[in-house]
Amino acid sequence: MTNTATASFTVDGWDPQTTDKAEGTEFSRVRLAKTFTGDVEGTSAVEMLTAVNDTSSAYVAFERLAVSVDGRKGGFVLHHSAGEHGHHLIVLPGSGHGELAGITGTAEIVQDDEGNHTFTLTYEL
């Protein structure tokens, strides 16, 4: 059975470090931290790699969540990829633990005009 959990989150830390800049494209590594409230409660730590130039940008990231989802405590890892063709978040197979062991699914992040983030997790457990 497919479930949906929705939460808001804040970015509590953002630590970018440029690792390379050549031929007009900059590579950076970013570490960030988030706090979730709603159907998903808890925190996460993110390791992100970005590539940015004057006309485009893209990133890949892994996000380790220590959360409860619909009251089930545990965690899992999200694999992010984003670029010209959209933003994709997938639960890394086999990464669920605690009461979230065996979780599979996808997620979506939407930011409103005021900068507030909404996180929607569509999952099976």
Provide structural commentary.
Residues 1-22 are annotated as: Disordered. It comes from Amycolatopsis coloradensis. It holds the Pfam family DUF3224. This is DUF3224 domain-containing protein. InterPro entries: DUF3224 (IPR021607), SO1590-like_sf (IPR023159). By secondary structure, this protein is mainly β. It has a single domain (3-124), classed as SO1590-like (AOC barrel-like, Beta Barrel). The protein has no helices and 9 strands. It has strands at residues 3-22, 25-38, 40-52, 57-69, 72-83, 86-91, 97-98, 104-111, 117-124. Strands 1-2-3-4-5-6-8-9 form an 8-stranded antiparallel beta barrel. It is elongated and about 50 Å long. It starts with a strand and ends with a strand.
Topology, element by element:
Blueprint: E1 3-22, E2 25-38, E3 40-52, E4 57-69, E5 72-83, E6 86-91, E7 97-98, E8 104-111, E9 117-124
Antiparallel strand pairs: 1-2, 1-9, 2-3, 3-4, 4-5, 5-6, 5-7, 6-8, 8-9
Named CATH topology: AOC barrel-like
CATH architecture: Beta Barrel
Number of helices: 0
- What is the count of structural domains? 1
Which residues form runs of ≥5 with pLDDT under 50?
Answer: none
- Give the number of DSSP strands: 9
Mean pLDDT: 95
Organism: Amycolatopsis coloradensis
Pfam families: DUF3224 (PF11528)
Protein name: DUF3224 domain-containing protein
Region (Disordered): 1-22
